[in-house]
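Render Molybdenum cofactor cytidylyltransferase in 3D.
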Amino acid sequence: MKFGPATPDDALGGVTVHTLRQGAFVLKKGTIIGPMEVEALNRAGVKEIVVVRLEDGDVSEDVAAADVAKAVAGEGVTVERAFTGRANLFAARAGVLVIDRPAVNRINNIDEAITFATLPACKPVVQGEMVATVKLIPFGVEAKLRDAAVAAARRDVLRVLPYRIKRVGIVSTMLPGLAPKVIDKTLRVTAERLAPAGATIIAERRVPHEEAVLSAAIKEMLDLGAELVIVFGASAIADRRDVIPAALTSAGGVVEHFGMPVDPGNLLLIGKARGVPVLGAPGCARSPVENGFDWVLMRLLAGLKVAKRDLTGMGVGGLLMEIVTRPQPRISPAADSNCNIAALILAAGCSTRMGGPNKLLAEVGGKPLLRIVTEQVLASKASSVTVVTGHQAAEVERTLRGLNVTFVYNPDFPEGLASSIRVGIGAIPKEAGGALVCLGDMPLVDADLIDQLIAAFAPDRGQLIAVPVSDGRQGNPVLWSRRFFGELMSLDGDIGGRHLLASHAAAVAEVSVDTHGAFFDIDTPQALAAVQRG
């Protein structure tokens, strides 16, 4: 292949290497120079242009890319028409992408001109998803190099295996303290995981965390025709002799491997009974966030055998995104318990909906509204109280004179609620394991409600957010674990953390309340008048 500058007349038959612009004249990269292009170049006053010409024994970039792409595409993979030296490959169906890694490496070692990139091996893909691309770097390549790449490909370098397992049985073990709603959420999350594969839960059983009854439940799932059995333990598997592996063995099955170098997901067990795969799910499998359980589950659903060497080979890249609800996070939060909860009172707002007066300074029963709220928080089991000020900060501080609180000023208070949350969270004492975010305009929230929220907060059981609930509605205040401080600090605008409750539903402990105080805030003169009347 010849490469270099040429006059417009000598460039005839060549291909432009770069896009050329001269005045109003534009000639795009990759254009084949014909008589019309030569005339246009001369008319534009172009004296020299860089072109490439294929020689005998060369093939164009598109031909080479297409040939290599066709050679690597196996079942379930289609090839798009090559363009500008690139041929993209797509999944023809939903399934798991299987890759011959040595073959990919062989192709990429042929020559620097030929590159071949894929998605990660064993990744679940959907129909129409791009799974790989072949890209030729130059405009052409020697045919012998193209031939070597095709030969290195052999057959079926890339395949998309369809999902084969459709019938899944679920067994959940129970211990005192494990709420039924945890099992309900686990089933919903699992059903969502199975849906892309077209698999469904054919039956689910909840049994005591005991070997004999669990063994019987596994047998029942097999009798019902389950093609995969998943066991969610009330207690994590600690050893091959623990309840779940022992129950699998007594059900006539075998434990093939326990543990995997993927975090979250370390405590996964894989076995088999009557030829049917059985998974002992790690605790993180209750979360919808990707973890090691997903890696094994999707392979099994596609009919792939997951052997010990497959599991032990997952360590590189096996450190996944942390799941915030895990009882033992990677970075242990300070005082992650309900013994040290700091309270945060937001009192920086402008009371715009009140039409002018600062509602927090208005009196109810002879006492300023904000002081009523603050005294109730101080009477609770909260370890400290921080008040965020902004609008009329000096007056707000005078209103709380004599109370054991810390003030922090929010200079950006006109931006809205989120700015006060950011400032307040940043001022929480380092030893606090959580923050109770209170609104300064909710005078009916009392110390008893706050103490109920603190009591419900249980990080060791994954209950990292506590919120009052009545008739399906979530109220205020809300208690947040330190693990969520980063997300709270990233809030913006005039909104609180309500959307975070939905994002982390599995971490929410709901405290049922009869009082309407958790839902009553004073936003209008009418509301203030109503509470003043009693």
